[in-house]
């Protein structure tokens, strides 16, 4: 098992380019199954989840190849509609394959997806959406079989906005007969990116980024070329790391508007934030103030995927901040790890009171999921002494070479193999 070893207390200086977004790339790669021919996707990060998606596409019969940050997929040779359980379990995004397989082959069989252990994460909205388009769904002995002789457009009203369910329905509906309307759709930028890719393939999708998406079914799609949007969570994590450790960092290849809420909070805490075109400059002396009460919300609200990192930052703020996690029911596992580093945190239900302390102290901590791991890295960079963060495999799901990006900014962080006796 690997760990990050971090010598904290060093300010960060320099410029770093933000890679493409995992959460945009994954549904777009799933979309390549909708038709045969060679698709070309650019700026796809090298991440564990992308590798798993490649393995799934390969297991389904598609050809998947990477050259640098460009991925080519050709699904002309798609030969099965079954995804083995061992692959389904490796990430949440395996569920995105349901929509395209149903559309292309008229059937799909999967088991429940895996993903970060951050809550119960049901799939009822995915199944409701596909059923509304005419799919017959049966779940028996852990296997979900979904079939449809024909998909027909429908109006789908989600009881809560779900990023994944919105994307799955878009993927299934682009070739359905007639018009599909998704109401109370999720509005995340990654959904807008999926819409752009689908429209490049010849689909007719409008409204992504609002709560109503309208999809007019088309008969044919064709392969397309597309560049993935920058990862707003990676950018947000580096911004928060620079704010916590102090220094001056410029992030390039960003869409500052996608980070609006995170940047607003940093500003409120007294950090200097200057967006300039596709760049964002963060300047901080490492001292900042509490931000009051914040709640995670669907986009454009404060993102749950930034909650742990923001909490790590606020541990060092002057005063008390309160964070309420409203999207996932078990996304506070970093709290006990931050406490090992001297953070003063009190949890009640899904709400955490964060009383700022003058400094954190290096400790041995464990990443239990992707963003919890990122939060511990942020804490380690700003702590006094040495922090060892275990569970690096979770961090590798969402950050390409996080330690290299931070080292290039002067952070003292390196990857180490850990033996059980350590
Ligand atoms: C690959 C990807 O894009 N992952 C992101 C996606 O996950 P994901 O798409 O899984 O998250 P959702 O937007 O679906 O989840 C939002 C809420 O809806 C609930 N829900 C979801 C589906 C369902 O069928 N039933 C149901 O009740 C969830 O439990 C949660 O409370 O959006 C999350 C919320 O922004 C992010 O944290 C994840 O990083
Ligand atoms: C929770 C996340 O990912 P996933 O939905 O793939 O588990 C995340 O990116 O923070």
TrEMBL record:
Binding site for UDP-N-acetyl-alpha-D-glucosamine: 92, 121-125, 305, 327
EC number: 2.5.1.7
One Pfam family linked to the record: EPSP_synthase
GO cellular component, one term: cytoplasm
Residue runs in coiled coils: none
Catalytic activity of the protein: phosphoenolpyruvate + UDP-N-acetyl-alpha-D-glucosamine = UDP-N-acetyl-3-O-(1-carboxyvinyl)-alpha-D-glucosamine + phosphate
Listed GO biological process terms: cell division; cell wall organization; peptidoglycan biosynthetic process; regulation of cell shape; UDP-N-acetylgalactosamine biosynthetic process
Active site: 116 (proton donor)
Domain Enolpyruvate transferase: 7-406
Broad class of where this protein is predominantly found: cytoplasm
Gene Ontology MF annotations: UDP-N-acetylglucosamine 1-carboxyvinyltransferase activity
Modified residues annotated as 2-(S-cysteinyl)pyruvic acid O-phosphothioketal in this record: 116
Keywords noted in UniProt: Cell cycle, Cell division, Cell shape, Cell wall biogenesis/degradation, Cytoplasm, Peptidoglycan synthesis, Pyruvate, Transferase
UniProt protein name: UDP-N-acetylglucosamine 1-carboxyvinyltransferase
Source organism of the structure: Planifilum fimeticola
